[in-house]
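Posting this for the archive.
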Amino acid sequence: MNKILSITIFSLLFNFNTYAEKIPDEYKLKDIGSGQKKLDVNFLCVSKKDKKDKIRYSYKKYKISSDNTVLIRLAYDDEYKVFLIPISPIIKYKNLKHENLKKNEVLVDYTILGDYQGEIWVDRIVFVDPKNKNIPYYLFQDIFTLTKEELIKFNDLYEYSWMEIDNEDFFFKKTVRKKIMKEFIKRNNDFHKIIKESFDESDSPTLEEIIQPEYKNRLTQLNSLVQMTGEPTYTTYECSKK
């Protein structure tokens, strides 16, 4: 199922009639942030090229055990004015190469978007918190491709992200949700490892290496054309806390 179809089905779930003003209560999953107007940490990001291009970058601090809290990002739904799908576990980078980068908090997350004109697209977001009041937060967004074999291998990751979970209890029981979220996070870590290897990312990467890796055979057709012009394939956003 591709992203457009996923969004259509999700919209139909909520549009029971033309007067519907809010999403069903079962989709207000406070523990993971779904249906919430704000998450634990919230940013508004504006494209440096086009000041009109604005996106929300917000994440939830999700406790998977008494001593382990992870971050999960949710997309903002402009129609319902709340955070919904897709859900993306966030990975914190460690072992950054240069000493002056070690103060930075570098976060990365992935969303498998599905098929687009014969290519399987993955949205990749890198968020940089410089831990310095004099330097703004930055977000870098780019798209790369998966093979059909990789999509099959990580189809469960796709289903978790878009809440296409064949388990009714996921929406009604927090204990079931936690079990599934643990598997979701584990699979996302597996995915991250494979992607880093395909990018030939070093064990102690530079920030530039993380922002624009060696996509090689993962370039989309559109980004292949962009790369030929010498322009970066990613979009840069400057962010402020909300």
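DSSP finds seven helices and eight strands in the chain. Helices lie at 3-14, 148-153, 155-161, 169-172, 174-198, 207-211, 221-228.
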